[in-house]
């Protein structure tokens, strides 16, 4: 799936030494890419928090969460769609808008100075990444913070590794025998209850 989707799913099956044993775990990882995509530039998505700043203008430093519609709200800029874009493109878009604006800055003496913003003075970083959710045959499934270039193996380690108690033997013959046995027990119990109600 492309990085621009709200969530990327990565399913991994690791086969054990015996044919009947297998481990299946899944990661819900928004923004987590395969090894070939991991080297690509990070693309911002819903849940990330961006920090935009302009050199020499501390009043314009602002943190903005990426909203559910994929946009951020910035002073002097307004609403700007950013979901699915790399930081370099977002920086360019913010810079283009700010260069057309006039910003009035107050000095310590109380004078007002007009500041002309150069697009090259704009910086944009990801202040907070959206979380990753690890689920499946791990010791501690749940929400974990995302770090750039995190691998699936590292996420499994963060989640406490594989939990041997969660791994199930999937033998269809044994499962069907168990189900037949359980069906017979439940049917017998049902017949006894029905007889007791009739009398």
Question: How would you sum up this structure, described in words?
Answer:
The structure is a single chain. This protein is elongated. The N terminus is likely disordered. The protein has 199 residues and is of the alpha+beta class. The longest helix has 27 residues. The strands form four sheets. It has a four-stranded antiparallel beta sheet with strand order 1-2-10-11, with helices on one face. It folds into three domains: 71 residues, no CATH class; 80 residues, wza like domain (wza like fold, 2-Layer Sandwich), CATH 3.30.1950.10; 30 residues. Strand 10 and strand 11 form a beta hairpin.
Give the overall shape, derived from the CA principal axes.
Answer: elongated
State the strand order across the main sheet: 1-2-10-11
The N- and C-terminal alpha carbons lie at a distance of: 63 Å
Using only CA atoms, what is the Rg?
A: 28 Å
Low-confidence stretches: 1-38
**What is the second-level CATH architecture of the largest domain?**
2-Layer Sandwich
Number of helical segments? 3
pLDDT averaged over residues: 76
Number of DSSP E strands: 11
- Beta fraction of the residues? 25-35%
Which class of secondary structure composition applies to the elements? alpha+beta
Q: The CATH topology of the largest domain is what? A: wza like fold
């Amino acid at each position: 799936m492309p990085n621009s989707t709200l969530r990327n799913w990565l399913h991994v099956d690791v086969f054990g030494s015996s044919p009947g044993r297998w481990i299946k775990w899944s990661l819900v990882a928004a923004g987590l890419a395969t090894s070939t995509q991991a080297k690509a530039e990070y693309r911002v998505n819903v849940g990330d928090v961006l920090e935009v700043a302009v050199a020499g203008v501390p009043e314009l430093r602002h943190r903005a969460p990426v909203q559910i519609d994929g946009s951020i709200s910035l002073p002097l800029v307004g609403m700007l769609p950013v979901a699915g874009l790399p930081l370099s493109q977002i920086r360019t878009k913010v810079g283009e808008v700010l260069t057309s604006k006039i910003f009035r800055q107050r000095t310590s003496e109380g004078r007002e100075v007009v500041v002309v913003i150069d697009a090259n003075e704009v910086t944009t970083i990801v202040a907070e990444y959206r979380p990753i959710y690890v689920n499946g045959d791990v010791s501690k499934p749940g929400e974990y913070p995302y770090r750039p270039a995190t691998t699936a193996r590292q996420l499994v380690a963060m989640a406490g590794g594989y939990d041997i108690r969660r791994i199930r033997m999937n033998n269809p013959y044994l499962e069907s025998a168990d189900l037949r046995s359980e069906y017979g027990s439940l049917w017998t119990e049902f017949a006894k209850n029905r007889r007791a109600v009739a009398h």
